[in-house]
Amino acid sequence: xxxxxxxxxxxAVPALRLAEAAGLEASLIxxxxxxxxELMLTLAPPxxxxxxxxxxxxxxxDRPNEKLVELLLVARHxxxxxxxxxxxxAPYLAYMRQDAAFHPGEIVSQPLIGGFIDELYDAxxxxxxxxxxxxxxxxxxxxxxxxxxxxxxRLADLIRMERSNPILMGPDAxxxxxxxxxxxxxxxxxxxxxxxxxxxxxxxxxxxDLDLCGRQVVLMDDIASSGHTLARAIEAVLAAGADSVxxxxxxxLFAGDAMELIRQAGVNEVWSTDCIAHPSNAVAMAPTxxxxxxxxxxxx
Length: 300
Ligand SMILES: O=P(O)(O)OC[C@H]1O[C@H](OP(=O)(O)OP(=O)(O)O)[C@H](O)[C@@H]1O
What we know:
The chain is an alpha/beta fold and about 300 residues long. It folds into two domains: about 5-150 and about 285-300, Rossmann fold, CATH 3.40.50.2020; about 150-285, Rossmann fold (3-Layer(aba) Sandwich), CATH 3.40.50. The chain is about 30% helix and about 30% strand. It is globular.
């Protein structure tokens, strides 16, 4: 038993897809939540006896405050039992958005959470981490091997199957990286909006100079959280005369009533990757993650 993948309830589908793609055996870690909200994790057979030399932990870090404790417990336990190499597959990597102190006294969490993972694991594979003011994860995780993948090529494949001649649109300057990737893969016309953020749920969107009249538009972004970015962009695109607007994103966080918000804004289809389990999941990341995991495991 040289390498094994472990996963948690609620993520069995993407984790088992990845295990199959990477040719690994997989085991469930059971979690019990005590009334005071402490957690107890239990390794299922055959891991209750011995652990392999390399352990791959699959955990996407939406709802991060509880999941970061899981990562700590699993990693420290594994080290105690002699696991040599710990690989974390976290398709969604949380706490990457607070990368600067925007107001006096704010604690900048990005390097701190990055450092937490850096101390516990030997390698990380993640998808479209929200790196705005830094360019590489190594800047916050200097010790471990960190592999950054993108959901954009898989979303582009889906859009090509679903729409014949859409305009791809990013809601802000940062989204141009995913729009350009998808446009290069599909040859579709594309543009990027300007966004001004005034607060957690207050954003303004200005459209690029493109004729949207009668066109099908697909908005692409890395994250939908409160849904306000997409909602404002959907409204602007429809007001400019577009026939329909679909949205495609890597990480379907959809906090609170976000889904309802974008429905009210007039969205047509909502597509996401399975980086975060959500009813909108339309694209499996297992082939992409599996290739990266194979490389990491071969790399020693
Ligand atoms: O659904 P929402 O709550 O609107 O959040 C989603 C948006 O937030 C992120 O950008 P952000 O505005 O944080 O960009 P920044 O890093 O450029 O500040 C992300 O790239 C999305 O565009």
